[in-house]
Amino acid sequence: MRYTRLGKTDESVPLIGFGTWRLGGGWWSEDRSQDERAIEAIVLAVKKGCWLIDTAEAYGGGHTEELVCSALRRLRSEGDYEVFVATKVAPEHLHYDDVIRSCEASLKRLGLKQVDLYQVHWPNERIDIAET
């Protein structure tokens, strides 16, 4: 897997990624009509070298993270694929306790004990970033 440095840190992330926006629905709206196609797209992306999967709790109202979970399960059953999973907390969930709840819910939907990168989707000017 090829990596690049994450911003100005010493951390690294895979060079090529696959974004999951609009797979499984829109912003907080679920759509299950293309689930199998979405799972197949994620699996194919990883097999073709997109080792970073980027998703968010708000995509499909959390359903997109469930699709990522299904794709990861399929990949594990087919072989040994290394995948870097990034997800995001929604701007309306940036109060301290909300961040913890959101992260725990994302982990459950993703079927993971930890994510590789947890991000603020975008700032919320009504919530002090220090609290987040």
Walk me through this protein's architecture:
The protein has helices spanning 35-47, 63-78, 96-110, and strands spanning 3-5, 12-14, 17-19, 25-26, 29-30, 52-54, 84-89, 117-120. The chain is an alpha/beta fold. The strands form 3 sheets. The protein has a 4-stranded parallel β-sheet with strand order 3-6-7-8, covered by helices on one side. The termini are far apart.
For the sheet with most strands, the description reads: 4 strands, parallel
Major sheet: arrangement of strands: 3-6-7-8
Low-confidence stretches: none
Helix count, DSSP H or I runs of 4 or more residues: 3
Measure the end-to-end span.
32 Å
Q: Label the overall shape.
A: globular
Helix content: 25-40%
Look at the structure and give the mean pLDDT.
96
- Beta-strand proportion: 15-25%
Order of helices and strands: EEEEEHEHEHE
Q: Number of DSSP strands?
A: 8
Question: What is the SS-derived class?
Answer: alpha/beta
The whole-angstrom Rg is 15 Å
Task: Output the keywords.
about 130 residues; alpha/beta; four-stranded parallel beta sheet; two-stranded antiparallel ribbon; 3 helices; 8 strands
